[in-house]
Amino acid sequence: MAHQKVLLTGPTGFIGKRLLYQLDERGYQVRCLVRAGETLDLNLPLRQEPEIVYADLLDPDSLPTALDGMDTAYYLVHSMGGRSIRQTRAFVEKDRTVARNFREAADRAGLSRIIYLGGLGDAGDRLSHHLASRHEVARILQAGKVKTTVLRAAVIIGAGGASFEIIRYLVERLPVLLGPRWVYTKSQPIAVENVLAYLCGCLETPETAGRTFDIGGPQILSYADLMGMYARVRGLSRTIIGVPLVPIRLSAYWVHFITPVPVGVVLPLAEGLRNRAICRENSIRDLIPIHLTPMETAICNALAEETEGPGKLLSQQACFLPGDLA
């Protein structure tokens, strides 16, 4: 299967850059679609240099060259948000446009597969603008001729990801944490390494073509649970006080004030946590059997990567896993 030619969109992002290394490790020929003006900075050398093509998904005329000769495409393009709340709202229409442009270009190019990482949540649950947009992108891609696999994930825990960085900065900096209502909503977080295993597994498992799968880790937890877990594995004493009446927008500005995560990213994440995000089905576990990483270990893996740099093996010197606690 490694002879397949794979187009990777979003190769500079949190998931995309990691996926590039995974695909390279498995021997795939990867072409990275990069926007003009962006640079693909690689922290570690690859076995083979990826082909880089510059294109703009808002410009349909730039896409045929990017897709020419490709077998499968990973669609990792979505707008978590902008620097500001106003930018976040504007990105919904942009996501819709680029998804349509990509679907039409993929149909014309005759791709065999598209694999898309979307968001977990049911349409009947009054979804946030962000999650509703992720679902709409999935529908747009699956409406084309190319068989599109959709993976739906909730909170993804890994170094550099918005969810983990919010938790890390809040817990490291504040001995007393104020918990608005959204931090107590239950979800099924998943380690970034498990997301990558599923993304690669879909490429190598033809039975996943054209289907939608929920993906999640082995535990159902809230953001408050994750913050408490982070404190424990770091050996920190922290208190979380619930403040359920604080509006979501105000809490987003508060998180932005404490962390480097832009308010335009915090707000859609917080709004998305109005609803429980738990896997309704687990059929992917039979098709792609992997070991699901417990969140304690996922947090330690992320801490080790923050300390030592991407790609380094786990060092638990900075972590106290539950079994090690007195």
Automatic annotation (TrEMBL):
Matching InterPro entries: ComplexI_NDUFA9_subunit, NAD(P)-bd_dom, NAD(P)-bd_dom_sf
Pfam families: NAD_binding_10 (PF13460)
Highest taxon listed in the record's lineage: Bacteria
GO molecular function, one term: protein-containing complex binding
Organism: Desulfosudis oleivorans (strain DSM 6200 / JCM 39069 / Hxd3)
Name recorded for this polypeptide: NAD-dependent epimerase/dehydratase
Annotated ranges, domain NAD(P)-binding: 10-153
